[in-house]
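User: Predict structure, ligand GDL.
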Amino acid sequence: MSKPGSAKRQPQTGTRRFISGVVEGFYGRPWTMEQRTELFQREQTWGLNTYLYAPKDDYKHRMYWRDLYSAQEAEQLIVLISAAKRHNVEFIYAISPGLDITFSNPKEVAALKRKLDQVKEFGCRSFSLLFDDIETEMCPADKQTFSSFAHAQVAITNEVYQHLGEPETFLFCPTDYCAAFCTPSVPQSSYLHTVGEKLLPGIDILWTGPKVVSHKISVESIEEVSSVLKRAPVIWDNIHANDYDPQRLFLGPYKDRPSELIPKLRGVLTNPNCEFYPNFVAIHTLATWCKATADLTVSVLIRLGPPSPGDEEEDPCYSPQKALTLALTDWLQEFLSTDQPGGKLEVTSSMISKGSNGKFMCRLKKEASDEEPMQTDMGESSYVPGPDENPLYTAEPLTLDDLKLLSDLFYLPYEHGPTARTMLRELDWLKNHSQAATSETDKVMPCSSSFLNADNFAACDPHSRFQSAEWCSRAQRFDDMCDAVVQMFNRLSNAPNRRILYDLYNYICDIKSGVGLARAYVKTLGGQGQPAAQLMNDDPEPWGFRGGLSGEFQRMLPGHGNRDLFKHPPMTTVYCIRPYCPEDKVEVQRVFTEMQRTGEGRAPRTAQPPLICDSLSAGDISPSPQCALVMEDDAGICGYALALTDATPAAAKTQVIKKQDLIRLISEEFPSLVTSQVLPRVTDPSPAKRMIGWLLSSIKSSGSRGVFCELRQGDRRMLDFYSKLGSFKTIQVSGLPQDIVAMGRTL
Ligand code: GDL
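Assistant: Predicted complex:
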């Protein structure tokens, strides 16, 4: 693993260089031209080579994509594009016409070409068409011309690519840009197959991984999608994107993408936090990752010492922890430099002199421009307080540990940093092991000595005091951790580089308040501070009910929204849904029998009236072709969904419902039948929902008008499942035995 900028080599994919860098592709306020120029400088220093211009809320990138740039805008873009060139960064101009383009209208294609021609005149040589986050339904005119949405997008992309003279770099972002969006799966997605087959081979494809914000990206998942796309994708990585939650910021290292991926990819572009300055870590660690090759780990080992146990085992070429330390060490220098627009500057005493008016002049040496004088009020800061007066406010300088703590508190979308995890765990323990009653009105008995007095904590006598000695000492440790957050906040607020601070300010205020509330609560449990009831009294200040309306909604949800996700590690079970094949028959029978055996309140099968769905599950009747799916987890098949597109022949053979009633129902409204079971070990309802969703779309493709299912009253789980799907409604069928419910939906 190597520090960014320390090694000249670039990973290669075949003969073309590996695309590495940043996509400005988030929603919200776009970065300024000055920030983008600063980004190019950094990219160059750290060895990254690409910038993809795709700010979602820039009018002329998406909403008003047809509009040409004004003279003033043109000038800015020209300057920006040439700045990228100067820093050896490839500037890719992206446009997102998908909100309202009519693909089949030649005028629309002409408008797109005209716009891109204009940008080409600005000096841009690399382009991208993005079709993410748009409606997938084509307008009637397009439906007449194109056999699918994929065909429409591919046709226009190929045409524009050729019109622009087949640029060396041309990127396409599909509408199904991650595995979660592919129906029914990546290998079976007809959308992706069309893109893979029809998109000209010189065009590269963007891909965000298994999800929009992918926790991990595995080598296998990339091999799978590459074989469908017929090329290695460029990862558009949303790991550090925060545009979906105004309370979150991501300052953790680039992580959970094995470095073995590098040779399998065409490139990686990170779409980071909306705030420009806090992206130092995201981009710096990505740069370290991009250079991860076995022979380069040596330089890092020299600088940071040998690997910690278990660390290098996971990825011998890249350690997120070490990459983070490298990034934070460099970031610290950035924080300590004073902030002037247009360039970093360091103030030294030789730059300061007294002007003719008696005021101090500070000669600033900018990095990128000529020296220029700036008047300051240095005279006033030379005030020296008298012996009985207040001493001047002094702030300790920010430390690397402060930045490590900051990063831990604002780590990654699916993971808090180690200190944050410890704090949550400790608070949870203190809450659960407190002898104090936790209801707001109950009185709390104090530890006789303040638990803030560290000397007395461990000595707390569990027999005579309310809280145990262990509780008191852990409460003290928790309090110390909270204090470290406050100290970090103070030192950050005093850091000379105000631009970084202002981008961080809301977040650090928020965490300081959150930690403050937790701290006060623990003090209350220890008998210190105000009683819990007063923490939230009748007329609290607005910070007593944090989060506004959105906070209210979240608090009404089970487990206070997603907070529990982090206390109890997230479920990592991966479910695979795939087509049923004849070899699955025995396993499907096993799931069926198990559900018969364990089903809530269900009698053994022999004692129950026979249903078509039983015969289907038991393998007595085969499901219709392409209308059967199984769900697997690590332990094997754990669920299934089977269908008969025409249930009439089966109804004629097996049925509890009076045949004529059923046959009338089937032929009139609901010709198809579905049955599904999922073992209780699958606690997450979403895979089952997805499986049914896919099955229904296959049934619909077969031309069916509607589908029904038969359920026993005792099978509360499946009844509940179908009811919660929302689209299935109970249907009345005369002659139905009392314990059978039929539910149906039109397709
Ligand atoms: C997305 C958007 C992106 C956004 C991100 C995170 C892609 C291809 N598109 O889906 O603009 O910033 O999610 O919210 O990722």
